Amino acid sequence: MEIPDDNQRELRFVSLNGILGYGYPEDSLRRAMELHPHFIGVDAGSTDPGPYYLGNWTAFVRPAQVKRDLALGLRAAIGHGIPLIVGTAGGSGGRPHVESLLSILNEIAQADDLHFRLAVIWADVSTTTVIDGIRAGAVSPCGPAPELTEDAVASCVRIVGQMGTGPIIRALDAGAQVAVAGRACDTAIFAAPAIRAG
Hints:
Elements: E1 13-15, H1 26-33, E2 39-43, H2 52-56, H3 63-80, E3 84-87, H4 95-112, E4 118-121, H5 127-135, H6 150-154, H7 166-173, E5 178-181, H8 186-196
Parallel strand pairs: 1-2, 2-3, 3-5, 4-5
């Protein structure tokens, strides 16, 4: 990623849309790319649909919709030599969701003969890790939520931890041209390159 020098304290970026697969005008992306952004980012999920899709290992956006949005963004990023960062892949960010998005990404790359360095950042957390955290007093509720219990954790089908900027920064530091993250804070997708750029 091109990092602005000290005399250019501006970092330009494109957010494809609110959630990958919800659509956007192709012309909007074309016009945005004329402003020479330093990276493209997109959140691919949400907590709004609730935990069903995480536990059921399914997505709440159709693969064809994701493919359309992702293909345009990927072509733009690779064509302009800038990173593409996708957070909360597959809608919920668990391993099956990330793998589903990677499958779509691979289809696009093969069809368009695109080559790039890929970073995949998993967000899955084992029940053992969470239960150990409860026992160590390292787990506390967020806001008015009730205390988390060992029984509740043991009954979970899948657990993801929401990542911040750190893993995304490390992926960019490692030379990733495309970074696909599991469950991620939506603002981290855009804050990570900015923090990295100083």
